[in-house]
Q: What sequence folds into this?
């Protein structure tokens, strides 16, 4: 399975991704976890020690120069458009149990779509991960989907948009779907998070009636406490884990 997870900041996207990845790992699946959000904290949410020391791929200047033939930060000029990346998931990932984690980082110059060596390498890497790897892949994306391109979108099994009961979150889901449709990524599902009452669930169902709704996760103080204490959400008991197991069965 190749899954991408997106959503507005603060909706619990990374918490959901971390629980999904840890549960899949416990089920015996080999999981390649990709942190593609510039506000990277997936490693911490997974419970990986010293996560702040993980260097994003986009900041590995020597490696990017070696693979593309151009210095990061430059635009135009000559560089390889198909750099070698097939060894990177094994050599540059951080490992925990059945999980390999890679932190992509963001391209700071000219936006995510710029024709620059680091952007080219990241897109080639994501293409390889989605098209050629045999693990389960879970990508924790930002609200945009800049790392995905047309070549990879059709091979993503599901783009999961995490939403909370709120107008801005709903609007972001519609924006993400529009971006996805532009690259022909049609397999989109919604997970409702921070649900406090049947009214919250009804709000999401009403405003996202034409979305495939994968399920709902209850508002949980235990998950907030885990975050405040620097714990992985997987390491505390919560109803969310039971609900996500049911979602995996659906997927």
A:
């Amino acid at each position: 399975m190749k899954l991408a997870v997106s959503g507005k900041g603060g909706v619990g996207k990374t918490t959901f991704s971390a629980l999904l990845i840890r549960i899949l790992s416990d089920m015996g699946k080999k999981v390649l976890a990709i942190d593609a959000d510039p506000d990277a904290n997936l490693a911490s949410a997974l419970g990986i020690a010293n996560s702040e020391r993980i260097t994003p791929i986009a900041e590995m200047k020597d490696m990017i120069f070696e693979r593309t033939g151009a210095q990061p930060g430059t635009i135009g000029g000559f560089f390889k458009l198909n750099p070698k990346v097939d060894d990177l998931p094994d050599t540059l990932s951080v490992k925990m149990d059945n999980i390999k984690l890679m932190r992509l980082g963001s391209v700071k110059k000219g936006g995510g779509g710029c024709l620059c060596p680091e952007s080219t390498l990241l897109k080639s890497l994501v293409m390889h991960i989605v098209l050629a790897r045999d693990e389960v892949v879970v990508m924790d994306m930002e609200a945009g989907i800049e790392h995905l391109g047309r070549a990879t979108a059709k091979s993503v099994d599901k783009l999961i948009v995490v939403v909370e009961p709120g107008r801005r979150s709903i609007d972001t889901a519609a924006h993400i779907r529009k971006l996805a449709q532009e690259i022909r990524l049609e397999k989109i599902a919604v997970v409702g998070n921070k649900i406090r009452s049947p009214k919250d669930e009804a709000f999401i169902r009403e405003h996202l009636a034409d979305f495939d709704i994968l399920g709902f996760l209850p508002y949980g103080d235990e998950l907030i406490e885990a975050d405040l204490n620097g714990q992985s959400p997987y390491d505390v008991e919560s109803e969310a884990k039971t609900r996500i197991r049911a979602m995996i069965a659906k997927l």
Summary: The chain is about 40% helix and 20% strand. Residues 63 and 224 are 38 Å apart (CA to CA). Strands lie at 2-6, 31-36, 94-96, 99-103, 136-141, 158-163, 188-195, 212-218. The radius of gyration is 18 Å.
